[in-house]
UniProtKB/TrEMBL annotation:
Domain Serine/threonine specific protein phosphatases positions: 120-125
Listed PROSITE patterns: SER_THR_PHOSPHATASE
Organism the protein comes from: Capsicum annuum
Enzyme class: hydrolase
GO function term, MF aspect, one: protein serine/threonine phosphatase activity
Protein known as: Serine/threonine-protein phosphatase
Organism domain of life: Eukaryota
Catalytic activity: O-phospho-L-threonyl-[protein] + H2O = L-threonyl-[protein] + phosphate
């Protein structure tokens, strides 16, 4: 942490290998990937994993390469420890100038304390987003001839990131949100064709909420979660958004995932016997474009309050995005949530301002022409 903080202020991006040589990167990414790939799609943080009456769980939202704010957050909340768990809700990279250092810092914590630090996947931990919003170019700029190798290894690690967590049997966290049930019906087998493969066709007539069993069976090891076919749950978990209008429908704004209302939050909490959903995925730029949704100026919003509990959106990148095309910045606060015993279901909100001054840095993407939020996706490019 100290080395990355120092290098961000004193070295050019191309000098990062003098701080973290490729050989050291390889050791870290390999060790971290092995740990992550062994974890289930939904990690459970409960008594079996050491959660006890003296424990606290810190939940963190999007951080988007804002290294110095992440370093502040870790110190402010208290570093991971035997009685302090961390759940990071994805989007470690892109837009900010230090996505690589941010992700590797958190990955090092994961390797150091694998049963106390949990890294979930965000929609930006994908090939498509990192090629559009700067992370790929950042890695190539920092590691030159070894850049493609480093980027490829990072993508492989991203594929291993779990999709969700259940904390204390009461709280569900995921980057985007809830997910659909994938009902499948076997195609008819032709007579006399014993070895013919049965093709499963997804039933798309009615959308309904998925089960924990379906979440655990989903195939998460994909560079870009598909928006069509039978493996839709990863895309739902990473890309979906809440709405103030009841119902469950395809997320037409993003072109992937779902939009769900308060009635679905109630049904999901009741179905899984939960009290709280904590998701991330929407910063001040995204919320500005969504009529009826609360602004993300304090780092969190309570979007749904229903009989069984609440839905919260948590965003941990203050003064976001780092690079903006207008002089009028959002100047939003960041936030993290602390969950405490005995039930870990009552959120304590901790807001914070951006660390100033940020070290000078150049963007790794064309932020003036690039859409701020992740709308209007180029699905053809994702497929490629």
């Amino acid at each position: 942490m100290l080395a990355f903080d120092w290098s961000s202020k004193n070295l050019s991006p191309a000098e990062l290998p003098s701080v973290l040589p490729v050989a050291v990167f390889d050791r870290l990414i390999l060790t971290g990937s092995k740990i992550l790939h062994k974890e289930p799609n939904c990690v459970h943080i409960d008594k079996g994993s050491g959660l006890g009456p003296e424990s606290k769980v810190v939940v963190v939202g999007d951080v988007h390469g804002q290294l110095h704010d992440v370093l502040f957050l870790l110190k402010d909340a208290g570093f991971p420890a035997d009685n302090r768990f961390f759940v990071f809700n994805g989007d470690y990279v892109d837009r900010g100038a230090w996505g690589l250092e941010t992700f590797l810092t958190l990955l090092a914590w994961k390797v150091f304390m694998p049963n106390r630090v949990f890294l979930l996947r965000g929609n930006h931990e994908s090939k498509y987003c990192t090629s559009v919003y700067g992370f790929e170019k950042e890695v190539l700029a920092k590691y030159a001839d070894s850049g493609k190798h480093v980027y490829r290894k990072c993508l492989g690690c991203f594929e291993g990131l779990p999709l969700a967590s259940i904390i204390g049997d009461n709280v569900y966290t995921a980057h985007g949100g809830i997910f659909r049930s994938i009902a499948v019906t076997p195609a008819k087998r032709a007579k006399g064709k014993k070895n013919r493969k049965i093709v499963l066709n997804p039933s798309v007539s009615v959308l309904s909420l998925g089960s924990m069993e379906e979440l655990l069976k989903a195939r998460r090891s994909v560079l870009d979660p598909p928006w069509e076919g039978t493996n839709l749950i990863p895309g739902d978990v990473l890309w979906s958004d809440p709405s103030m209008k009841d119902g469950l429908s395809p997320n037409k704004e993003r072109g992937i995932g779902l939009v769900w209302g308060p009635d679905c939050t109630e049904d999901f909490l009741k179905k899984l016997n939960l009290k709280l959903i904590i998701r991330s995925h929407e910063g001040p730029d995204a919320r500005e474009k969504r009529n009826g949704m609360k602004p993300m100026d304090q780092g969190y919003t309570v979007d749904h309050e229903v009989k069984s509990g609440k839905l919260i959106t948590l965003f941990s990148a203050p003064d976001y995005p780092q690079f903006q095309a207008t002089d009028d910045r959002y100047r939003n606060k960041g936030a993290y949530i602390i969950l405490e015993p005995p039930n870990f279901d009552i959120p304590v909100y901790c807001t914070f301002d951006a660390v100033t001054p940020r070290p000078r840095a150049n963007p790794f993407y064309d932020y003036e022409d690039c859409i701020d939020s992740d709308e209007e996706l180029d699905l053809a490019a994702m497929a490629t």
